[in-house]
Amino acid sequence: MNDDIKNFVHLFIDLPDYLVSLFEGIVTYVELKPNEIFTKEGEYSNDFFIVKAGIMRSYLLNEKGTETTRAFFISGDISGANSAMMQKKPSEVNYQALTKVTGYKGDFNKLIELTLKYKEFSLFYIKALENAYLKAEELLLDISTLTSTERYIALKKRIPGINKLITQRHIASYLNISPVQLSRIKKKLNNQYFFNTN
Burial level of 55, CB count in 10 A (0-12/13-18/19+)? Predict the structure, then answer.
């Protein structure tokens, strides 16, 4: 049995090994290259993605070609056009690897089949949806209540070393500011740290 899959499932619910093996049967180990698109806007997808290592993002692309990063996905997160798959419609969002990403691509329809056949998988599915909802709610709360500087500090806590892992352009896009504004925030925080330690 694959320990990665067992550990992931147990983040949400304790399933017996035979059921974990059934889940393992609907996922495939995948490596994504930096900048590789996992799901493209306008396409129908049937694949969700469990991140083992690396950083993925979801982003919107407007008619002028400007990208807005909505969320980052790291180890233990589920990525992919999940809401579009639930509604059986094309994705409205792009999902992309920003670094080399390793993880497991899963078949959404087969997951739904498991939930219909086994009560335990229904509970797993509910727990995973609850987790995704709480993360989305937290993100919306951060956007509406925190300043760009506070969101940047929170992002650095969630993803230590993020400045060395992905481009400043993607971080600025996530914060909904320009790279120049991000540089100013970083400089201000560095100055505060310097004066607070002397």
Answer: buried
CA angle, 171 then 64 then 97, to 5°? 40
DSSP state at residue 67? E
Do the beta carbons of residue 159 and residue 51 sit within 8 Å? no
Residue 168's pLDDT is what?
93
Mean pLDDT of 101-120: 95
In percent, the amount of the chain with pLDDT more than 70 equals 96
**From CA 185, how far away is CA 189, in angstroms rounded?**
6
Q: How far is CA 37 from CA 14, 83, 94, 97, in A?
A: 32, 18, 7, 6
CB atoms within 10 A of CB 175: 21
Cβ atoms < 10 Å from Cβ of 160: 9
- For 19, how many CA atoms within 13 A lie in the half-sphere containing its CB? 18
Place of tokens 């400043």: 168
Instruction: State how far the Cα of 106 lies from the Cα of 59, in Å rounded to an integer.
Output: 21
Compute the C-alpha angle 66/73/113, nearest 5°. 110
